[in-house]
Amino acid sequence: MIERKDVPAVWYFEGMEVTETDAGIEISACVLKHNDDVYSFEAVSFDLIPDDQLKVAYDIFVELDVSTNEMKYILNRSYVDPDGYFPGYSGDKRLIHTLLSITVDTDGSRTGEIFNFHKWEATNEAST
Length: 128
Description:
Pfam family, one: Gp22
Radius of gyration: 16 Å
Structural class: mainly beta
Order of helices and strands: EEEEEEEEEEE
CATH architecture: Sandwich
Oligomer: single chain
Number of domains: 1
InterPro entries: Gp22-like, Gp22-like_sf
Strand order of the largest sheet: 1-11-10-8-9
Shape: globular
CATH topology: Immunoglobulin-like
CATH class: Mainly Beta
Largest sheet: 5 strands, mixed
């Protein structure tokens, strides 16, 4: 089962919809905001393809190239070792978010998480 988790964040998405289909994942066009910066993302999709011998892990990372101020998705597909280990982010850019992490078993079943990074609002939690 793929779970969805709401996460308040200072780097947050507006207009993003992540849809699980029979074939894979679809992500709508959206923007990522941080302070006065706005980064546009085009719609993307990818298939979740099982392997006949090992589990396959799919991760989408959101990374920032600080030298150019460009933001992009990185799709990482890796095989899960029998002990459950699979690599994480290994890019050379600034990691902003892990948008999703999904494992596909050899029978095609899916487990993992999709994160909804929404605007974090500071609240006054002190009682007066």
